[in-house]
Structure formats: structure tokens, C-alpha cells
Amino acid sequence: MSALLDKLETETCSRCGGSGHFSYCQSWGTICFRCKGRKLTYSKRGAAAALYLESLRKKPANQFQPGDLLYVEGIPGFTKSKFYKVLSVWMKIADRCEMVIECDGYGYHSDPETMLRKGCTAEEKAETLKQALAYQATLTKLGKVAKKFAASPSLFP
User: Which residue intervals of the chain are DSSP H helices?
Assistant: First the structure.
């Protein structure tokens, strides 16, 4: 039962009715594009908490060190989204300041302050999920901070 309480709030997909399938498409078959075939989507409260959770699991590009894990979004149909191990990090100064993060089989260029997804240990994942669930508990059904929590000093963004 406690495993069910450790999840962000979801609801049945309103597009496919929870079947995971919608109309036929020659490229993708009958997969529902709203829930991506998962049958569930985040509620407004769950979506706000998921965005907060994602922000907790990011750090600026200039704080990455060799040995860290960097998550790179793939291009659907071409490359997979995956974590890459950082091999080296250096700053390139040409017409603008730019961070270059070299990974195993991948090179990533970004501004130094760009927030990038990092790899987390199991303990970090559990702690950030706990913080996101605490944030979710302060939200209304519309995903906004409830008035009774808005008056107190902000613990969350």
C-alpha cells in the first residue's frame, strides 16, 4: 500500500479512455499520443509536481564533473534518450561562452547556466521524490499552491 502512496497523482487518459490506443496511424499504429500507450496521464496536480521533481534532478552545465551522468533526450525514430557518462568538461570561448561536455560516444554543447538532467543515486531519487510529493500535497486540483500554504514562507518554487 505504501508503494501506491509514493507516486505522483495520475488519472485515466482522457483521449483513449485508458486503453492506450486511439486512431490508426501508419507510422505508429494505434498508440495514443497523449498517454504514449501508458493508459494514464498526470493530473494537473501531478503534472506540477512532476515538473518540480524534474527541476530537482537538474543542475547547471558548468557544475558537471567527469564521472557524472548526463541525460540527453533522443530524437523519436532516430536516437534513444539515455544517460551518458561524462568524460570531460571544458569551456569554449569563441563568439560566446559555451560549455562542452564530452561523454562516451556523445558531445554536448550548451550555455554554462543551462539546467541539464543529471543521473541520481537511489537515495537521491527517493529524497527528490519525497520533496515532490510534499510539494504535491500543497497544491489544489488545478495545480496551484493552496492559499493556506501560499501565506507561509515558500519552501518550493
Answer: 2-5, 44-56, 122-137, 147-150
Question: Do 111 and 135 share a domain, yes or no?
Answer: no
Residue 145 forms part of a structural domain: yes
**Of 157, 60, 42, 43, nearest to 118 (Cα)?**
60
Size (the chain), residues: 157
pLDDT digits 0-9 by tens, 86-139: 999 998 887 778 989 999 878 888 999 999 999 999 999 999 999 999 999 999
Report yes or no on 115 lying in a domain.
Answer: yes
Q: Say how far apart CA 27 and CA 67 lie, in whole Å.
A: 38
CA–CA distance, 24 with 103 (Å, rounded to integer): 39
